Amino acid sequence: MQHPYFRPMQKLLPLLFLFAFAAKLYAHDSLQCYQPDPNGRYREHNVDFQKLVLEVTLQPKVGKVIGSANYKFQPIQPNVDTLYLDAPAIKIKEVKLDGKAIEFKSNEAGVTLKFGAKLSWNKSYSLVINYEANPRKGLYFIGWNDPNNLSRKQIWTQGQGIDNRHWFPCYDDVNDRLITETIITFDSTYTVVSNGKLLSKKKNADATFTWHYAMNKPHVPYLLMLAIDKFAYKDVVSNNGIVSRQYYYADRPETFAPTYQYSKEMMDWLPKELGVPYPWEVYANVPVQDFMYGAMENTSATIYTDFYLQDARQALDRNYVATNAHELTHQWFGDLITEWSATHHWLHESFATYYAKLFSRSVYGESQYQWNRRNEYYQARNADDRDKFPVAHSQGGSNRHYPKGSAVIDMLRHVAGDSIYKKAVTHYLEKHKFGNVDTHDFWRAFMECCGMNLDWFFDEWIYHSGYPVFNVQLDTTQNGKLNLYVQQTQSPNESGKLFTMPLKAQVFYTDGTNNVQTVLLKGMDTFSFSVNKKVNYVLFDPGDNILKKVTFIKPLNYLASQASSAPNFIDRYDAITALRLFDVEKKKDILLSVFNQENYHPVKTEIIYQLRKEKDEASLILFKKATADKDLNVRKAAVEDIDSIPPILLTGYEKLLRDSSYTVIEITLRKLCKLYPFQKARYLDITKNIEGSSRNVEIAWLEIKSSIEFEKSVNRLVELTSNSYEFRTRTKAMDALERVDFSNEKLINNLIDATLNPNSRLSNPAQGTIRNFLKQDKFREMFTAIVAMNEWQDWQKKILENLLVKK
Question: Does one domain contain both 695 and 669?
Answer without folding.
Answer: no
